Amino acid sequence: MDFIKSYGFLFTTLVTSTIAITIYFKNKKTKQLSWDIYSWSPIVTKLNHDIKIYYKDIKEITDDLNMVLIKFKNTGNEPIKKDDFENDLFLKLLDSKVYDVNVSETKPEGLPIEVYKDENEVVIGIKPLLLNPKDEFTIKLLTDKLIPEFMISTRIVGGSIVEYSKTRKNLRVLLGVAAKSELTMYVSVILAIVAAFMQLFRMI
Question: Which of 133, 165, 173, 183 minimizes the number of CB atoms within 10 Å of its CB?
Answer without folding.
Answer: 173
